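ERR on first pass: missing label on line 2. Operator R.T. fixed the label and resubmitted. Corrected input:
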Amino acid sequence: MIRLAASETLIPAPNIEYYELSPILIVFGVGVLAVLVEAFLPRAHRLHAQLALCLTGLVAAFVVVCTLTDEAQENARAVPQKVAAEGAVAIDGMTLFLQGTILLLGVVAVLLLAERRLGGEFAASAATVPGSAAEKETTRLGWVQTEIYPLLMFSIGGMLIFPAANDLLLMFVALEVLSLPLYLLCGLARRRRLLSQEAALKYFLLGAFSSAFFLYGIALLYGYAGSVRLSDINAAVSGSEDNDALLLIGMALLAVGLLFKVGAVPFHAWTPDVYQGAPTPVTAFMAAATKVAAFGALLRVFYVGLGGAKWDWHPMFWGVAMVTMLFGSLVALVQTDVKRMLAYSSIAHAGFILVGLVATNAEGLSATMFYLLAYGFSTIAAFAIISLVRDGSGEATHLSQWAGLGRRSPVVAGMFALLLLAFAGIPLTSGFTAKFAVFSASASAGGTPLIVVGVLSSTVAAFFYIRVIVLMFFSAPVTDGPRVAVPSLTTALAVWIGVAVTVFLGVLPQPVLDLADNASFLIS
Amino acid sequence: MNPANYLYLSALLFTIGAAGVLMRRNAIIVFMCVELMLNAANLTFVTFARQHGNLEGQIIALFVMVVAAAEVVVGLAIIVTMQRTRRSASVDDAHLLKY
Amino acid sequence: MDGNVYIPIAVLAALGFGFAAFSVVTGALTGPKRYNRAKLDAYECGIEPTPQPVGGGRVSVKYYTIAMLFIIFDIEIIFLYPWAVTFDSFGISILVEMALFIVTVFVPLIYVWRRGGLDWDH
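pass 2 clean. output:
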């Protein structure tokens, strides 16, 4: 009888909680199906099939997230708490709140991507060389690059895992899964293709560079703790004093990778270029959803995994938050391109959100989550409106072209003004509620200097937001200026959703604030 | 052999990679330097796996290789597209996006 | 300790040699024999070598497409190695997992094939 050296006892199969993980699985499954749609459906039917598939998937995933939240509350627990997939995924309050936010933003993003009436934002065929005969031919035939939908779904899937990852390896894989499709999406613009490809190249090279830092940070933390599970790292941090260098350097490198993704100073350099060059619907999605996912991961790593080393990272984040707020607001002052201005404004907002993070208490966590939700919807609507203001050559993003827009199209300009007021943090908009929440959380944690800097940069920021409003409503319209194009139903719906959420969270924020409060819980 | 030597080597490789990213001008070479950084991290993982006596680090190295391959594919796609458009892979030629 | 443990190795070796001998002999007996330049070259691989152009020459962009596809599908196989080593220790679940993984990798292959990515003259 021949017996190989196999062990007699079976290793038990890993326990996978399919139900708790189903939002993620649904989104990835839809992504795979969408690839098959690309492979087998004739070109004419692809767009509608993709739209139906993606929207159904996102809504289904959202329903599961809501059910999970609901069930946990019925079980007499205030928040859901479960570690799934052998401890690699944490399904807790924060995860579900942020996953819900990302899925809703994803729905809005799909609606934006589906815009066809304005001639489409995406290249007819990304493989053709700009200006070539092949490009003209594919455009004439009315091709569309429907691969954007599977790419978007994979990116959303990565974003759903990113804040839930309880394990640094999973977090790294999620980071790449969310980033790689975004790099490609950035390069697919229909007009100004050189600019778009350049944005993709810059985003890719800098993104890969930062993820290498992130990975090396993980390697050092693994050396320090002997494990990449956040709970094990936390135990090692609280348990021992030795080998501090590995911990400190690993922590710093990890922070580099994550702060790059949220676009905080000094790792912000890619933001304006990429936001400007990418197709506007992609910019909208990136600005909103990537921030949500990346802040979720930042919160989990530093609250759960490195909470014991708080006094080592706390000062660093204080500094980063201050510099980010000031730098974003000041540089936005001198911008002449609307997309670049909003990019710098998003850097400033990353600073405000970091104020919530450095509060390191439950209020800070819930305020950060609320801010992410509020900012996500406002920013996605703002970029959607930018894609509507057009002249003969496509989008008119230069600020001077926006002069007098309010007289020609008061409704759209009015909505844009409202969103800018929300960014500035004027009362009765979501921006005010969100800023108030992070600042009060910071106050309770003794962050007075941060609040002073925050209020100061808010004032600076308010100046350039209001400057745009003045330009739109009180300057004489430029002759031959851009028009507000009449979009198809999907884009209009996306804008209205964004504006409605912005107003709702400003006027009646309490239900959502309560939701965020209930969800401000992390499994350690 | 002392495992610390492998750590020094990997730190050195990581630094060479990072310096290359910052100094080289050809997008493909910049990208190769990023890959060097990822492999430096891999060496660190494997060394620590040996030091701690668990397999986790070795498994992570496998995952990193797969992720790096995916990154290569996306990166090459972007760089080759640029190259076909401009007949150049120099990052200095990519300067349309400025203030 | 008896020599029985070496039987599988011996069987495997016999199978290997047997297969090689079978292929060579059958090929020589049944295959058509047409001689051309490629077959008479010093290093025969079925393709006539192209002369090296001056200055290295340009590589066709098609080559990158094939290279990219090769890399991605080649590296995915890496997961099969640890899987094969520990296959015995797990139950049926790991077989299902790997089947799922391979199906997932197969889907992009179908996509590439349908879109003509495997077609050199496309």
